[in-house]
Inverse folding.
């Protein structure tokens, strides 16, 4: 005979809100060794930003018969499946079935290569952990965020962050750890926005297509450990030149890999290319700056603080650059008050 046990969370409404910032990989994640658990084929290294953010509230409520998701004040059914999958991971940990309403606000364009999934899922995991009183460690929060979107594993932490590839089949050793605080090496990032459209091929689809069809996949995986070692040493030594060289190498290698997929993945537009040339010219003239680009057309120019104004002016001057956003490096994902959600 089975007895229906009362759902632990059913008695109440539970809610919390959190903020997380996007991160930008300097040594890129591209490719999965397990699609279901979202395990990467390579480790990666990133910087977390400060003035771009996602703020997310989650409200588990017995009165709801299904999950709901609103982004920037509008119902977003297209993203609901991914959000519901993330809620399922949290519910499984809490042993509850209660549905939730999730509200998110981004202060930057969504889906255009600015890592909105990284900040979005990191914020949702941190909020969900608090709302359901899960008391998860930071490593466990990073693992849950990883399962929702790989790069979200890194946005749990601030400053310079490494996400370890791991070797365990269950993914229990594939999570991010903080390497260096933002204040220990306060680099600046100038984002040149060259398109405000949603990207055509998202990272997940792009990297799966690459793994199946790109002839360079093996070389990509084989070279990553050496790149990570160089980048780690550069960060520890605050060696800008060394970090610049290895970061541009990782970025260009990832795009070469994706370009060679079938059909080829071409994430750049003409302005993207012009920005890359401009950044290289600035560096040749002595300014400490390098570029990196993710699965979209925006160019992130990473520089020493004293170069930021000149880099921003140069990016603004490139034809086709629609907007320039400048930011420093920021802290870890954190809980906020519900009423801070949409505050600028
Ligand atoms: C190019 O983390 O968006 O930005 O795990 O499939 O959600 P999923 O992919 P996602 O991919 C990010 C790819 C990248 C490089 C990086 O951030 O390391």
């Amino acid at each position: 005979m089975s007895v229906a046990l009362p759902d632990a969370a059913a008695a109440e409404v539970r809610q919390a809100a959190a903020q997380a910032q996007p991160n930008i990989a300097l040594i890129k994640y591209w490719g999965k060794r397990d699609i279901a658990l979202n395990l990467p084929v390579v480790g990666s290294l990133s910087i977390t930003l400060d003035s771009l953010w996602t703020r997310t509230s989650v409200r588990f409520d017995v009165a709801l018969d299904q999950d709901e998701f609103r982004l920037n004040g509008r119902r977003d059914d297209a993203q609901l499946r991914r959000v519901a999958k993330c809620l399922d991971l949290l519910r499984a940990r809490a042993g509850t079935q209660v549905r939730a309403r999730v509200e998110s606000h981004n202060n930057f364009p969504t889906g255009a290569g600015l890592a909105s999934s990284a900040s979005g899922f990191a914020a949702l995991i941190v909020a969900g952990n608090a709302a359901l009183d899960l008391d998860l460690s930071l490593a466990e929060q990073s693992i849950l965020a990883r399962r929702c979107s790989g790069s979200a594993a890194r946005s749990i932490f601030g400053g310079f962050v490494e996400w370890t590839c791991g070797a365990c089949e269950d993914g229990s050793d594939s999570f991010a750890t903080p390497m260096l605080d933002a204040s220990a090496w306060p680099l600046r990032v100038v984002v040149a926005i060259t398109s405000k459209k949603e990207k055509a091929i998202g990272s997940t689809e792009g990297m799966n297509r690459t793994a199946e069809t790109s002839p360079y996949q093996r070389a990509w995986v084989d070279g990553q450990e050496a790149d990570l070692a160089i980048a780690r040493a550069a960060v520890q030594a605050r060696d800008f030149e060394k970090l610049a060289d290895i970061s541009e190498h990782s970025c260009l290698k990832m795009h070469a890999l994706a370009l060679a997929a079938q059909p080829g993945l071409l994430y750049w537009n003409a302005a993207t290319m012009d920005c890359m040339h401009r950044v290289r010219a600035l560096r040749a003239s002595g300014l400490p700056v390098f570029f990196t680009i993710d699965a979209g057309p925006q160019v992130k120019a990473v520089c020493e603080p004293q170069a930021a104004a000149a880099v921003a002016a140069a990016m603004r001057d490139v034809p086709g650059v629609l907007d320039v956003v400048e930011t420093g490096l920021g802290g870890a994902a954190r809980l906020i008050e519900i009423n801070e959600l949409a505050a600028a």
Notes: The pocket of DP6 is lined by residues 25, 28-30, 38, 44, 117, 149-151, 203-204, 294-295 (CB under 6 Å). Residues 188-328 form a domain with the Alpha-Beta Plaits fold (CATH 3.30.70.890). The two ends are 55 Å apart (CA to CA). The longest helix spans residues 217-237.
